[in-house]
Design brief:
Distance between the termini: 42 Å
CATH superfamily: Vaccinia Virus protein VP39
Shape: globular
CATH class: Alpha Beta
Radius of gyration: 21 Å
Strand content: 15-25%
Order of helices and strands: HEEEHEHEEEHEEEHEHEH
Largest sheet: 10 strands, mixed
Bound molecules: S-adenosylmethionine
Strand order of the largest sheet: 1-2-3-12-11-4-5-9-8-10
CATH architecture: 3-Layer(aba) Sandwich
Structural class: alpha/beta
Helix content: 10-25%
Length: 333
């Protein structure tokens, strides 16, 4: 195991007992192969399709997940692309069964790459969702500033979140996720409201582009840093969600007390985002290495010791004085 991962792992307690039911800080936590109703936090260690069988019809308000991309990550076995899509279609069919009629689902995807050719997964997922009768509400672009540097194409710096609702009557709360206007002092210059402030005092719609900019809440666009090694939330998971990314979806697309589910939960970032905002949460992953970390992170959150990037914290922008932003001497003319 590389040194960095090893030290990240050390930050967590080692193996966690499985299965177990425990009560911690007034919350009932179940860590097992199946889901149980009336439990605040259900963490599953199982194949996702097997686990979903135990969740009743029309019980979930919001599903947020990032499925495997079938690109040969350590936690997945690469299969034929068609076979992968058919498996995902089966998972989504089950997701539809367990969603409430006014429920939402967000599928965060990047690219599948085969022999150097790029297959943008959202393009392939769209017809699957449509076939199942879902309605697209937004195709959100999550832009991040760091990542691998490609050699034979432009470096990838964004991923897509497909937000679908189960029906035309769906939960959408804009107020909790409004961002401040750039010019709050603007006034209407004509009409009935002439002379009155023209914006909404609660802020404006944050748009469908969540992009790098100096200070995310202060600006029109949302920028949620990718979880990389310097991020306070980093664990051994190779492609972990920033909790902040999910917080925004949870605030806008569900209500307090609702049930939130992540069918490919990794180290439980969706669960943490849900707990922070008073939701009940369910997540499953097939790797004990990850689910153990999810259990520990949940406990750390409940006892108040989880390291987390604050929602809306401005993205660090170098001031120009740091060595790392200066041109090396050898490159100067
Ligand atoms: C892209 S990662 C999700 C990471 C997660 N969003 C987080 O923040 O940690 C996909 C996850 O799906 C899990 N996975 C892959 N196939 C699975 C299956 N058949 N059943 C359950 N989990 C699976 C992998 O172990 C991996 O953790």
């Amino acid at each position: 195991m590389p040194k960095k991962e090893n030290s990240a792992l050390k930050a967590f307690e080692s193996r966690v007992e499985f299965p177990q039911d425990l009560k911690f800080k007034d919350k009932a936590i179940r860590y097992s192969k199946t889901y149980k109703e009336r439990i605040d936090i259900n963490i599953g260690l199982n194949d996702t399709l097997d686990y979903i069988q135990s969740i009743p019809d029309a019980s979930i308000s919001l599903i947020v997940s990032s499925p495997p991309y079938n690109i040969g990550k350590p936690y997945e076995e690469r299969i034929e692309f068609e076979q992968y899509l058919s498996w995902q279609s089966h998972v989504l069919q089950e997701c539809k069964r367990i969603l409430k009629p006014d429920g939402n689902i967000c599928w965060e995807v990047g690219n599948h790459v085969k022999e150097g050719e790029v297959y943008p997964l959202d393009v392939f997922f769209y017809p699957i969702f449509k076939e199942l009768g879902f309605n697209l509400r937004n195709r959100l672009i999550w832009h991040f500033g760091h990542g691998l540097h490609a050699q034979k194409r432009f470096s990838g710096r964004y991923e897509i979140i497909l937000w679908f609702s189960k029906s035309s009557d769906y939960i959408f709360n804009l107020d909790p996720v409004r961002v401040p206007q750039k010019y709050p002092g603007k006034r209407a210059y004509k009409g009935r409201n002439k002379g009155k402030p023209s914006g909404n005092p609660l802020g404006k719609n944050p748009s469908d582009l969540w992009e790098i900019i100096e200070a995310d809440w202060e600006n029109q666009l949302w920028n949620i840093p990718n979880v990389k090694s310097n991020h306070p939330e980093k664990t051994i998971h190779p492609c972990q969600f920033p909790i902040e990314l999910v917080e925004r979806l949870i605030l806008a697309l569900s209500n307090p007390g609702d049930l939130i589910f992540d069918p490919f939960m990794g180290v439980g970032s969706t669960l943490l985002a849900g707990l922070i905002h008073g939701r009940k949460v369910i997540g499953v992953d097939k790797e004990k290495e990850f689910t153990d970390i999810a259990v520990v992170r949940v406990r750390k959150y409940l006892e108040g010791s989880l390291k987390k990037r604050r929602l809306g914290k401005p993205v660090h922008k170098p001031r120009g004085t740091e060595k790392v932003v200066q041109k090396p001497l050898e490159w100067r003319e």
